[in-house]
C-alpha cells in the first residue's frame, strides 16, 4: 500500500498538469497499467476491452510480439536516437514502405513526431509551393493542437481565440445529426457542396488558394464520413485550378476504415497525405508523403529532431509488416460491418440514439434528446461511464460532445467486437431508462 501521506495519482495529476488537458471519467480517472491484445488492465487490476485504443494509435493492440521484438532488437544496439543528419536505416526502409502504399505518384516522405507536426509540415509545404497563405478546410474537422493546425480546425470547441497564421475558409463536410441538408439525397448534397467550393475559390477568396485540407472520416467529430462522392467532387474542382489536396489520414490511415487509406473509398489522388497515430502502434511518429515536386519546394533546410528516430521507425516497420501480413484493412472492413450491424439492430428502437456513422473500425454513435435531433452530451458521457463499469472503454466526441467514439485495435476479433456492441447497447438502454 502507498503511504497514507501520498496523494492519489489523480490529485498529483491536477497539481502539475494544466486544466485544459482533460481526463476521461472525471470523478474517477483511469490509469491503464498493462495490456495484451485488445485488453488492458487498470491500476487496480481491473480488466477492460479497449474500444478506444489510445485514440486509434494502438492499431495492433498491446504487447504485440512482432513489434516488441523489433523494439527490443533496436534497444540492444544502444541507439534510440541519432541526428537525422546521419543515415538511419529503419527510417529509409519505412519511407520506402510508406511511399509504396501511398498511392501518390513519385512520392517523397518526411517524418515527424506527431499528427499535429505533420499537419504543420503539410501547411508549410502547400503555402510555400503555391506562394499563398489561403487555405480551405472542412467544417467540424480537427487537425491538432498547434497554431497552424488549430487555425484550420473547423470545430470551435478546440480553437480558443481563433488567431491564425494562415487565412482559412471552411466548407461543408459530411452530415452529422441536425444537418439542415437532411432532406437532400446524397448526389444532391454533393452538388450543393461542390457549388459552394467553386463559388468560394473563384469569387470570394484571394488568389491563389494554396490547398484544401480534409479528413475522409472526421474522427474527433465522432466518425462522421464525407458523403459518397464528396471528396472526389472537391478533388476535381481543385485539380482544374491547380489547388493542392491535402488528405489528413491521422485517424483514418493504415486500414482503419477498411481500406489502407480513407481517401481510397473515392477515386482521388492527394497531393499530400498526412499520417501518424497507428503507424508506430503507440510510439510517437507521424509524417507527410507527397508528390516530389511539392515536397521539394522548400528553399531553406528543415528537420524534425526526433521525427523518424531509429526506435519509432523500427517499430513502424514491424507494425506495417503485421498490417500487411494479416490483411488487417480487409479484417477491419468485415469486423466493422459486424459491429455496426449489431449496434444498428440493438439500438434501432431507442429514440435517444440517432444513428451509427463511420467506416470500418472508426465508428460514432450519436445521442440526442428523445424524439429530437437536439444533441445530448449528458447521455454520451453516461453511456461511456456505464460501459467502463461493465469492462469496456470507449471515447466521446462530436461537435456537441454527444457522440460515442468507437475505434478498437484492428486485431479485434469478431467475438470481441460483438461483445463490445452488446455492452454499448446494454449501457444505452440502462441510461435511457434513467432519463425517462
UniProtKB/TrEMBL annotation:
CDD domains attached to this UniProt entry: OAT_like
This protein's UniProt keywords: Aminotransferase, Pyridoxal phosphate, Transferase
One Pfam family recorded for the sequence: Aminotran_3
EC number of the protein: 2.6.1.44
Cofactor dependence: pyridoxal 5'-phosphate
GO molecular function: alanine-glyoxylate transaminase activity; pyridoxal phosphate binding
Superkingdom field: Bacteria
EC top class named in words: transferase
UniProt-listed InterPro entries: Aminotrans_3, PyrdxlP-dep_Trfase, PyrdxlP-dep_Trfase_major, PyrdxlP-dep_Trfase_small
Family note: Belongs to the class-III pyridoxal-phosphate-dependent aminotransferase family.
Assembly information from the UniProt record: Homotetramer.
Name of the protein in question: alanine--glyoxylate transaminase
Lineage: Bacteria, Bacillati, Actinomycetota, Actinomycetes, Streptosporangiales
Amino acid at each position: 500500500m502507498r503511504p497514507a501521506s501520498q496523494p492519489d495519482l489523480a490529485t498529483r495529476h491536477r497539481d502539475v498538469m494544466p486544466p485544459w488537458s482533460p481526463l476521461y471519467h472525471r470523478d474517477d480517472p483511469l490509469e491503464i497499467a498493462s495490456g495484451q491484445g485488445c485488453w488492458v488492465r487498470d491500476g487496480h487490476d481491473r480488466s477492460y476491452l479497449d474500444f478506444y485504443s489510445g485514440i486509434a494509435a494502438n492499431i495492433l493492440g498491446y504487447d504485440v510480439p512482432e513489434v516488441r521484438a523489433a523494439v527490443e532488437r533496436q534497444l540492444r544496439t544502444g541507439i534510440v536516437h541519432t541526428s537525422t543528419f546521419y543515415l538511419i536505416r529503419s527510417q529509409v526502409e519505412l519511407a520506402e514502405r510508406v511511399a509504396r502504399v501511398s498511392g501518390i505518384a513519385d512520392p517523397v516522405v518526411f517524418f515527424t513526431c506527431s499528427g499535429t507536426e505533420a499537419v504543420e509540415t503539410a501547411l508549410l509545404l502547400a503555402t510555400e509551393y503555391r506562394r499563398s497563405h489561403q487555405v480551405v478546410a472542412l467544417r467540424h474537422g480537427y487537425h491538432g493542437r498547434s497554431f497552424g493546425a488549430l487555425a484550420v480546425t473547423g470545430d470551435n470547441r478546440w480553437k480558443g481565440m481563433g488567431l491564425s497564421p494562415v487565412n482559412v475558409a471552411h466548407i461543408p463536410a459530411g452530415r452529422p445529426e441536425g444537418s439542415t441538408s437532411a432532406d437532400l439525397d446524397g448526389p444532391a448534397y454533393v452538388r450543393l457542396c461542390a457549388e459552394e467550393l467553386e463559388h468560394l475559390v473563384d469569387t470570394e477568396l484571394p488568389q491563389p488558394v494554396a490547398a484544401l485540407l480534409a479528413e475522409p472520416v472526421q474522427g474527433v467529430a465522432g466518425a462522421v464520413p464525407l458523403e459518397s462522392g464528396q471528396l472526389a467532387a472537391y478533388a476535381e474542382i481543385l485539380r482544374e485550378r491547380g489547388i493542392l489536396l491535402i488528405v489528413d489520414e491521422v485517424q483514418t490511415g493504415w486500414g482503419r476504415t477498411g481500406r489502407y487509406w480513407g481517401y481510397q473509398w473515392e477515386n482521388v489522388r492527394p497531393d499530400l497525405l498526412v499520417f501518424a497515430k497507428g503507424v508506430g502502434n503507440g510510439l510517437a511518429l507521424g509524417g507527410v508523403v507527397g508528390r516530389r515536386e511539392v515536397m521539394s519546394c522548400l528553399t531553406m533546410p528543415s528537420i524534425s529532431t526526433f521525427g523518424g528516430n531509429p526506435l519509432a521507425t523500427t517499430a513502424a516497420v514491424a507494425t506495417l509488416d503485421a498490417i500487411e501480413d494479416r490483411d488487417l484493412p480487409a479484417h477491419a472492413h468485415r469486423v466493422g460491418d459486424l459491429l455496426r450491424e449489431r449496434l444498428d439492430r440493438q439500438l434501432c428502437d431507442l429514440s435517444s440514439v440517432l444513428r451509427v456513422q463511420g467506416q470500418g473500425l472508426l465508428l460514432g454513435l450519436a445521442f440526442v434528446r428523445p424524439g429530437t435531433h437536439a444533441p445530448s452530451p449528458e447521455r454520451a458521457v453516461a453511456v461511456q461511464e456505464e460501459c467502463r463499469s461493465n469492462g469496456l472503454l470507449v471515447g466521446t466526441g462530436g461537435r456537441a460532445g454527444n457522440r460515442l467514439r468507437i475505434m478498437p485495435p484492428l486485431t479485434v476479433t469478431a467475438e470481441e467486437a460483438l461483445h463490445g456492441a452488446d455492452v454499448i447497447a446494454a449501457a444505452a438502454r440502462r441510461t435511457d431508462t434513467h432519463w425517462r
